[in-house]
Amino acid sequence: MAPPPPPPSPPPASPADLALVNSLSQSALPQRARVPRSSSRLKSEHEQTQMQQNQPADVVDVCEENVVTAASISRKRRLPDGLQEERDDDDDDDDDDNNNKLFLFASPQSIAAFEYLDHPADVQLHTWGNTVEDMLASLGAAMVNYMVPLSTIEETETKHVEIAGAHDMHTFVFTFLDELLFLFHGDGFVAKRVGFARGASVVPPDATTTNGNSSAPWPAVRLAVRGERFEPTRHGGHGTEVKAITYSAMAIHDHGAETAATNRRWEAFVIVDI
């Protein structure tokens, strides 16, 4: 049986029919204007592409270095204690060199010149030294040692402090000890040795008195404090906490140059609240 013949092809559209279809399409579908891209936009994108392709290698290195530095800071906390302390020691070498030039630190023998005297409720610090700076350094060491044994403190960090607003030795001593106490309670930093700015004097030459209100405030004195972060396990836990410095029965004595040979020209008695 023969297959059926294919259907006849439709007749071609006449020119009039094509014109009618085109007119209907243009009226039914609105045309959206195509806005050409501006030459300035093309130029800016082109320049941006060129900048990305031609960016110097050192610029990329700087950016990567910033990222690595930020990451290394967060990773440093997870490093073994020995490695972290070694890095800290390396960083502090330059600081120690600068501090030795700018500040005069008390010797280990000087900071050991203190004792604790009995008191009904608190504790009285008794310190002495051949200079006022030695006396103050041993006074700070005495207070810290009452909370954390000095023998357990390493000098791995340096803090800088300014004592300002003093009018006499009483206010200077109070502010000095209060700053060291704030470093411990506020920053978790235990101080071991204190250095005073070279060429500066704690007691100004024109001071009218050392144990009473002077006629004018004393100049500010800059200090460098060496010590480290407090770690309870390594520092033997918390000792007796010093809560505050007091003016109660505070006494500062300058016995005169004739007593220099005894290493007790300057002497201090300070009661701290525990």
Going by CATH, the architecture of one domain would be 3-Layer(bab) Sandwich
Rough shape?
elongated
Q: Give a quick account of the main beta sheet: strands, pairing sense, barrel closure.
A: 5 strands, antiparallel
Radius of gyration: 39 Å
Outline the low-pLDDT stretches: 27-49, 55-93
> How far apart are the termini?
121 Å
What is the helix content?
Answer: 40-55%
CATH fold node name of one domain: Archease, Possible Chaperone, Chain: A, domain 1
Care to count the β-strands? 9
Strand content: 15-25%
CATH superfamily assignment of one domain? Archease domain
Lay out the secondary structure:
Layout: H1 15-28, H2 39-53, H3 57-76, H4 81-102, E1 103-105, H5 108-111, E2 114-117, E3 123-129, H6 132-147, E4 157-163, H7 169-187, E5 189-197, E6 221-229, E7 244-245, E8 251-254, E9 266-273
Antiparallel strand pairs: 1-5, 2-3, 3-9, 4-6, 5-6, 7-9, 8-9
Task: Describe the model.
The structure is a single chain. The protein has 274 residues and is an alpha+beta fold. The protein has helices at 15-28, 39-53, 57-76, 81-102, 108-111, 132-147, 169-187; strands at 103-105, 114-117, 123-129, 157-163, 189-197, 221-229, 244-245, 251-254, 266-273. It has a domain at 108-273: Archease, Possible Chaperone, Chain: A, domain 1. The protein is elongated, with a radius of gyration of 39 Å.
